[in-house]
Amino acid sequence: MRALPCFPGLTRPNKPPRILLQKSNGPVIERDKVVTPCLGNIPRRGGVAADVTALSILDLAPVVEGSTVADALADATRLARLAEESGYRRLWYAEHHNTDALASSATALLIANAAANTSTLRVGSGGIMLPNHAPLAVAEAFGTLANLYGDRIDLGLGRAPGTDPRTAALLRRGSHDDGEAAFAANIRLLAWYFGEQVDESVQGGGTESTQLSHGVHAGVARGTNVPLWILGSSTAGAALAGQLGLPFAAASQFAPFQLSEAIWTYRQMFNPAAPTAQIPEPYVMAGANLMAAPTREEAEHLFTTHQQMFLGIRRGTRGPLRPPVRELDWAPHEEQMASSALRVSAVGTPEECAEFLRTFAASYGIDELILTGYAHDPSLRERSFRLMAEEWDRVPAVEEDPAPTGRANC
Length: 410
Prior knowledge:
Layout: E1 18-21, E2 27-30, E3 54-59, H1 69-86, E4 90-93, H2 107-116, E5 122-129, H3 135-149, E6 153-158, H4 165-171, H5 180-194, H6 208-213, E7 228-232, H7 235-244, E8 248-250, H8 259-269, E9 284-292, H9 296-315, H10 332-341, E10 345-348, H11 350-364, E11 368-372, H12 378-392
Parallel strand pairs: 3-4, 3-11, 4-5, 5-6, 6-7, 7-8, 8-9, 9-10, 9-11
Antiparallel strand pairs: 1-2
């Protein structure tokens, strides 16, 4: 396999670079004159070179056609153990409701189960949809997790409902203000809960968090300093993450349309002096889809399960994961939509997937990749993540020719 150099990233240029990803011939980079070295300098574990971008896993606890929710949760437990054994940095669960396809509705409970079945793996939410929950309840749940499992718990926060409008209405916590200002205020309140919860009195009635808390404290959360992440797919979420001095997780596995602009906005807006800041410099995680198999043909065949799931969501016919098919039954406009939304997908042999992901991470200056994948046979999903981890540890030497040779759905 031909190795790849580190492409220029997106660290504070004068204008946002525009990066277009081709399907098979590698990245086509349209950028301004200002270029900087790519990021990805944090090792996943001891012995792995420091310039290897970290890998993590996003699990939605998919339910397979012909199986049960209990089976899906058992599969999730096995994946958590595999993630730790294979050296992934963290495992996150995403909140979803009113679906027979996913068993990730009670995110905090899945996190607790994964943490109980591992010892070093970071576990968290990717994410908790804050409009569905009172910040106090979130602080108490994640404060409890932090006290049970120590500094292994992450709290990723999103503003989307994670479901349909009718279900969202039933989940509401009483407030219908889902605007960016309310979201930001609630994140600041969560940071206050995870801190020392000092009731600061100032002229005018106290600080914002003191006022929002109404004098109510979260004893189980105090002093836990649970790391906060902002999830998003647009420049709005990226800007907020930067303003608050928090890491940003981009949902590029299904919404990559503003990725370049979002990352640029995040870096431009990053404020390490913000009261809520938890990191000294910007940190970007980006989502990618994965299906690795011994042959490209098998990987592409297995990936049709993922494509069918996406198609079911668009058609409003979501159900448990279906078996892979030889040919997908979709209209031209559906194929175009799926190809666009799922273009950040590594599908092929482990070498091809690693080559694509390294190219993607280097092109965008991404510090960490969080991978998600679906298979009708859970053991093949586990195999995919295992093969990827094994290949990722083989740090390539840099060659002059940057063009990837493997097939990439990006």
